[in-house]
């Protein structure tokens, strides 16, 4: 999705590159149609318009073309180029072309820095949230991640899928807060979940291990708010995939889609989010649900259910996932 959005923006920028030529042509048309209008301001703007969109060579060429067109138009209209008003106009175009050349270099450096920052952000995203395999243990896996901010590549949401000797283990979560602190918690959670999922034999042990790591990070960050927490759902599909084991830590309940019906897998008793485990007891409630063949498990963060339509109505994912049987 991010790549598609950037390609679409690049296509729009390609159209904007024709703007200097359009302005130059407009100046010619206006000067020929209405000779009483002074078109030197339009010609002077050509190189300035070209500066943020074209190369240095094309920016200078745009200014030179504007000077040439200004001289030709003056010659056509009055037969004399070197009059005081014409010289002032041509000098203005030349000065603004020099200014545009400096602006072009500044824009080029900014674009290079932005390109480098985007490459670093993409590398961080691939490291924190690597691409998921298409199939794990014969099950199809599909993921979709989109940050809330339009230009952001990573945020406070997280997901992971690990094939372990104890079964397929998955997690989805939403970190409270924004910025680099949220990304730090995401990285900590994914790392601790990966290690615990591979080593520990049961789901409650994984939750406790992740909770300990999160508490440790919060204790080491002096400026971290005490109320920082992570809502999460941890799911285990054992080697014999007939049941789902779900530990819900204050997160929106996942949906099981089967037989044309979407059912929310609500926990029997609520649990506090990760990071607030010191306020609760040591027990980790785990719910078991039947996992029939052909069923689909849909896990999501609250960005889905907090979306609203133009009338302010919250989005409910159950109706779109419900397909009436023939």
Architecture overview:
The chain is of the alpha+beta class and 326 residues long. It has two domains: 2-125, no CATH class; 134-321, Phosphatase 2c, domain 1, CATH 3.60.40.10. The protein has nine helices and ten strands. It has helices at residues 2-16, 19-33, 40-50, 56-78, 84-128, 179-199, 203-220, 302-305, 318-321; strands at 135-136, 139-140, 157-164, 167-175, 230-237, 243-249, 255-258, 261-264, 287-290, 296-298. The strands form three sheets. Strands 3-4-5-6-9 form a five-stranded antiparallel sheet, covered by helices on one side. Helix 2 runs antiparallel to helix 3, helix 3 packs antiparallel against helix 4 and helix 3 packs parallel to helix 5 (84-128). The two termini are 34 Å apart. Residues 1-7 have low confidence and may be disordered.
List the helices and strands and how they pair.
Layout: H1 2-16, H2 19-33, H3 40-50, H4 56-78, H5 84-128, E1 135-136, E2 139-140, E3 157-164, E4 167-175, H6 179-199, H7 203-220, E5 230-237, E6 243-249, E7 255-258, E8 261-264, E9 287-290, E10 296-298, H8 302-305, H9 318-321
Antiparallel strand pairs: 1-2, 3-4, 4-5, 5-6, 6-9, 7-8, 7-10
Helix pairs in contact: 2-3, 2-4, 3-4, 3-5, 4-5, 6-7
